[in-house]
Amino acid sequence: MVYESILEKSRRGERGLAVLIDPDKADETHLQTLFKQVNKAQVDWVFFGGSFVDPSDFKVCIEIVKRISNKPLVIFPGDNDQIDERADAMLFLSLVSGRNSEYLIGKHVEAAFELYASGIEVIPSAYMVLDGGKQTSVLQKSETNSIPQHNLSLIRKTALASEMLGMKLIYMDAGSGAIKPIGPEVIRAVKDISKLPLIVGGGIDSSEKMERAYQAGAEILVLGNVLEKDPNILNALRNQGKPEATWNSSSSPIA
Ligand code: 1GP
Fold first, then answer.
1. What pTM did the predictor assign?
2. Residue 22 Cα: closest atom of ligand 1
3. In b/e form, how buried is each residue of 203-233, taking b as 16+ CB within 10 angstroms?
4. Would 158 be classed as within a structural domain?
5. I need a surface site. Which of 82, 112, 143, 241 has the fewest CB within 10 A?
6. What is the dihedral of CA 222, 75, 5, 34, to 10 degrees?
7. Per-residue confidence at 148, pLDDT binned at 50, 70, 90?
8. 77 pLDDT exceeds 70?
């Protein structure tokens, strides 16, 4: 079970890493190159989904990924039609940073029967979009605003309310290609108030940024854009010479 594996990593103090595939941006050649690295690297999960994805592209792309990937596949849905029984799990995202009821509960109601019938593991997830310095497709699609990173009070209250509502994890996202990734002070503020596993993504494109986020308390980081630009960057992971080692504060997954 994917959620159990997240908790287990967290209990052991290990660092988790997810690679995000947006079917809208990925073609087979790119995926083949990327997964040559991903399959050998210390990557725990493949997140899969996007805000503006044609349903047929979604199916075609998931078919390719299932064929070439040896990692658990977790749907990171941008809409209620992004369901596929070949996935291992879905982050059932509620956009708690926004106030658009469609993205808080509406899409979930529309997806409920199909998702239930698919039998895949459903992980109730608080999805908090913070300002990363540029307009993101999530905000555009949901017609919501992000929370400014300096508003720690609202961020902490949102995290706490999400936990009290029964969410199983928090995903704090500065948005794909963010200019300003989620800052360490924001991560620390959320970790101080919530026991939930914390996923952080958006604009993480260097080992320094990864290190900062892990050190601040993020359990799982998500890499998307950086691998779309250069799928070979994960090579550096293997070059450390300890591919099976768990990550710790002295190991840096990408150079
Ligand atoms: C976006 O958090 C993900 O939703 C990943 O962001 O594409 O900037 O890595 P990047």
1. 0.93
2. 7
3. bbbebebbbbbbebebbbbbbbbbbbeebeb
4. yes
5. 241
6. -50
7. very high
8. yes
Residue 130 above 70 pLDDT?
yes
pLDDT computed for residue 105 by the predictor: 98
CA of 175 to the centre of ligand 1 (A): 5
Nearest CA to ligand 1 atom 2: 201
Q: How far is CA 153 from CA 128, 147, 181, 186, in A?
A: 14, 11, 19, 10
The string of pLDDT tens digits covering residues 201-243 is 999 999 999 999 999 999 999 999 999 999 888 867 434 333 3
- CATH number, residue 68: 3.20.20.390
pLDDT for 26 equals: 87
The pick from 173, 179, 207, 230 for probing ligand 1's pocket by mutation, whose C-beta has the most ligand atoms within 8 angstroms, reads 173
134 pLDDT more than 90: yes
Host domain of residue 68: 2-240
The domain tally of the chain equals 1
Q: Interior CA angle at 37 toward 120 and 199, to 5°?
A: 50
**Is 250 within the bounds of a domain?**
no
- d(C-alpha 43, C-alpha 235), whole Å: 12
Would residue 255 count as lying in a domain?
no
Select from 17, 19, 20, 182 the residue to mutate for testing ligand 1; criterion: most ligand atoms less than 8 Å from CB.
20
Domain assignment present for residue 246? The answer is no
pLDDT at 129: 98
